[in-house]
Design goal:
heterodimer, A: alpha+beta, Immunoglobulin-like, 5-stranded mixed β-sheet, 4-stranded antiparallel β-sheet, 12 strands, B: two-stranded antiparallel sheet, 12 helices
Amino acid sequence: MRRARAAPLVLAVALAHAAWGGGLCAAEGKGITLTVDKPEIRITSGFHGDFLRAAGTAPADCGVILRLTSARGGETLDVKGKRGLFWLTVGKVRFEGAPRVYMLRSTRPVEALLQPQEQAREDLGIFGLRSALRVQSHGDSDLLISEFLRLKRDRGLYGWTGGGVARGPEGKYEAEFSWPAHAPSGTYTLTAFAVKGGGVTSSASSTILVRKVGLEAWISRLGERHGVLYGVLAVLIALAAGVAAGAVFGGSFRKEKKAGPGRESA
Amino acid sequence: MDIFLPVAGTSINAAVLVGAGVLVGFLSGLLGVGGGFLLTPLLIMLGIDPLVAAASGTNAIVGASASGTMAHLKARNVDLKMGTFMLVGGVVGGGAGTLLVRALRRAGNADVVIVLCYVTLLAVMGVVLFVEGLASQVKGEAEVRAESRGYRLLQRLPFSTSFPASGVTTSALAPVVLGFLVGVLAALLGVGGGFFLIPAMAYFLAMPMGLVVGTSLFQMLFTSAAVTIMQAAVNHSVDAFLAVGLLLGASVGAQGGARVARGLKGDQLKVVLALLLLALSVKMFDDLLVLPRHFLAVGGGP
């Protein structure tokens, strides 16, 4: 009896939601599609960053958000504090749930497309970023997380405001990500979200592998796996370069000494 | 042209990197300082991780001090006997300094001690050298050397030994003690210690400035090589590309510096070094007082 009374209410809520727009994209049966111009970014000796171009189609009445990020992990940073007159490193703090890179592109600012709760749920925007971040510290967690996000943003690794997605005819969209040279190697995921009525209606993902190749990869591997050997090689190379320079310049140096006035001596 | 640094994990303009090497190499050749205290902040300013900056800088100093040592050896500006005595003290001091750092860290506030030590030391050495450099310009170097209280103090120690290359007779303990102190400071401050060694050798051992520079480079060559291997083995923080780029510049710079040093008199060299030390101590002190741009930083350093 109670169930029968509740049914019209559920139907009414569903209709209201549909009328507001939520779910219409999906109802049309057209999910968002995504293609990326390159599945791999190869780090060579001359690497100085790269560009990733994403494109696809999404229902014309939907907003589009693109998120480029990695799996979340931990990171330890130094904390600066004031001791008397001086600003010094006063401790370390460990952040968990931090992606290596977090970049967004969208048709409109993310706050205009998604409510804070939806951002947190879908891991999109500032609320999405913050929701998974945890701090292992006795200090003010909110303040530390804000500082962490500011540091990452200033280093060009995080961005959460969006913008930069252009729409074309027949539901087409496209956007470009600038990949910084100092972003760590690893596996990243680019996800495209179709958004309507404050919620995500469909999504599509593509994986991007960022890896060192050739000499870069060989040196990295040697440094990580055979530290002592790598250190000895580094010293030998440095010595060879130093001695070679000494040999090249040494001859003229000696001649100069004979010709010029003597250095003051003991 | 940009090059990607495999261990630092970032790219850098090749000309900027080589230019930084030339600058540091020039100072290294001119003053005999390894340049670690100058190189590390310079690399951090260029966007390199502090840990990688320190370790790769040390690697580059191996090359810079090798070419500098060769240039000074040819000019007979290295007192090998004195250098070997200092090296022995330096190795023991380095071990003791490492233990001291650990103890300070456990007690907390190690940073305060380290940075204030650095600032005080640079400032005191700068002032002493500056005054001595000016005084010797007036009185002549030999007279000032005879007046050095530090030299007379260490002369009273036993095991009197002659160091013919430097033309001084002092206790064999003097260079060992000095090397020990530099070893402790190097471990404590995370630098090669040349900036301290040079003025200390001039003041306490009364060595002529030309020999001081060459001898300290000789000692630094071994210290930096050992530190590079340890950093590579323990912290995996030596970037060979970064070091080679710096070396290209530093090797040339060091030769230029050594040539200019020949043209300068010892007391003029003292004044140049004094001004550099004073400027650095003022900068470091100022850094402590200024509100940092970020309250979080990638870890590294001592």
